[in-house]
Amino acid sequence: MNSTPEAIKTRMEYDADPFTTKEHTGEPAMFTHPSLDRRDFLGTTTAAIATAIGSATRAESDKKKKLVIVDCHAHIYGTPEEEKRYPTIAKPYRPPEGTGTVAHLRKNMKDNGVGHVTAVQTSTYYRFDNRFTADAARRHRDFMVGICTLDPDEPQSPWVM
């Protein structure tokens, strides 16, 4: 084997040993791919096609997965019956009759493919009394979480919860 600095290794031959390296002096380095016979070509292309088909099948399968939709800002209001337990402020903003309740929200979620909801405390209805939202989130924890509204002028409001 020639170990002079001018020796340049090139991969030139393909034989029973997949690649053999020969040293050549004074020639530029070059890489040549060994030629494939029919069997190697078919094996390689079949593998590439199978991979492509597998990727396409996975992509199609991913499209069929259900998209998770979360309503991240829904206000909820008590029914007249619930208002006995959770009194409102003096002049509350009321949604149209039959709307805004947890039952109405649940129906809208189902009709629109919404899986989960973040119920935001309605300060125009309950002001800073978060009991209704907290209790609703506890009762409906399978699809709801709640966000409370704290009184910014009350230093103890985090502990009033």
Structure report:
The chain is of the alpha/beta class and 161 residues long. The protein is built from six helices and five strands. The chain has a three-stranded parallel beta sheet with strand order 3-4-5. A two-stranded antiparallel sheet has the order 1-2. The longest helix has 27 residues. The protein is elongated and about 90 Å long. The N terminus is likely disordered.
The total of beta strands comes to 5
Proportion of strand residues? 15-25%
Q: Radius of gyration, Cα only, in angstroms?
A: 35 Å
Can you tell me the residue ranges where pLDDT is under 50 for at least 5 consecutive residues?
A: 1-22
What is the tally of helical segments? Answer: 6
Average pLDDT works out at: 79
Helix content: 25-40%
Please specify the SSE layout and strand pairing.
Layout: E1 7-13, E2 20-25, H1 38-64, E3 70-75, H2 80-85, H3 102-112, E4 116-120, H4 123-126, H5 131-139, E5 144-147, H6 157-160
Parallel strand pairs: 3-4, 4-5
Antiparallel strand pairs: 1-2
